[in-house]
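Narrative of activities, Objective 1.

The group set out to show that a structural description can be obtained from nothing but a protein's sequence at a throughput compatible with the screening campaign. Below is one input-output pair from the validation batch, recorded exactly as produced.
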Amino acid sequence: MAPHRRTAVARAGTNIALVKYWGKRDAQLNLPRTGSISLTLAGLETVTSVAVDPALQHDHFELDGHIERGVPLGRVGRFLGLVRERAGSTGLFSRVVSRNSFPTAAGLASSASGFAALACAAAAATLVARATSSALTSRRATVSSPLVPTTAPRTISGILTLPPVRFKGPR
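Output recorded for this entry:
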């Protein structure tokens, strides 16, 4: 049986950092050196749909009504490739349509909310997201990727996001 088209839609709120992380502890994995505290801004969100379509020959990306090419399409395509690889569905491509309810690239973490919504929708559309004890756990695992902005996981966590507290003993 031929694969069929699957579509999923996800929303992620944008956020503003109150305490921002400083630097990266692992640049290759895109992990922050320190935690951060942020507030999710009510009414400001990214809505992204991912349609896995066997008829497509390559990924398509539309942002706020504009077809994206070059670097933006490359970033989305690399991330979708990672999701496909984990799902075991290489060779299938997707049409991604993303809309922000706020100005893109205006300092409101549109990249973070965009990739958080993309991660959730792509996981659902490629059937990567499995039932777990918490839907948030699977979303966070999907959003945690070297290809995703470091701030993306906090955009799906709720109104106030606090990092896990880790205490270091004396050296």
